[in-house]
Structure to design on (180 residues):
């Protein structure tokens, strides 16, 4: 058990300390221990003044943020908007180019005589397209089986495709032939 001693203080100081202690901890000793620990941990003296309060620091940060926002607005007005207008004026005079991909007519309308011939024609086209789709699915499945997940320490993960030049060219030729 701790020994208790007395300290002589002014009555006014004792009253202040009692009020403050009720807010902080259940006993006067704990309050005094907390206060001493605070000064020792922060290497402060009761005579030191703290540099900035939280509100003054918050006001300073808000002023700096306002300055950054005004800089961004200034850059937008002076640099970005005129550059955008110049680019738009350059693109206004350009002609539209032909599309890079041709639209392919999947089914040509045959000049058939009766319904049976027409039905046979569409059935053949359906099975032909179905066969191409199946072949394409096998090729894509083969490509997916040749992929390997590469985990990157600095960027996002990606998949690497193990494919020889001959395999790449054959797939490219098949796709190009089907596009015609």
């Amino acid at each position: 058990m701790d020994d208790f001693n007395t300290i002589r203080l002014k009555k006014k100081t004792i009253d202040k300390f009692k009020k403050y202690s009720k807010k902080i901890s259940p006993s006067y000793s704990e309050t005094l221990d907390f206060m001493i620990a605070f000064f020792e941990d922060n290497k402060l003296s009761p005579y030191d003044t703290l540099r900035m309060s939280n509100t003054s620091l918050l006001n300073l940060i808000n002023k700096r943020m306002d300055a950054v926002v005004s800089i961004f607005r200034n850059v937008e007005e002076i640099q970005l908007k005129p550059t955008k207008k110049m680019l738009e004026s350059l693109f206004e005079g350009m002609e539209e180019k032909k599309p890079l991909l041709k639209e392919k007519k999947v089914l040509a309308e045959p000049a058939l005589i009766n319904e049976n011939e027409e039905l046979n024609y569409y059935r053949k086209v359906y099975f032909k397209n179905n066969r191409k789709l199946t072949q394409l699915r096998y090729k894509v499945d083969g490509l997916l089986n040749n992929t390997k997940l590469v985990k990157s320490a600095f960027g996002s993960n990606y998949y690497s495709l193990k494919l020889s030049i001959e395999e790449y060219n054959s797939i490219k030729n098949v796709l190009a032939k089907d596009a015609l």
Notes: The first helix runs from residue 11 to 24. The chain has a mean pLDDT of 82. The first strand starts at residue 147 and ends at 150. The beta strands are 147-150, 158-161.
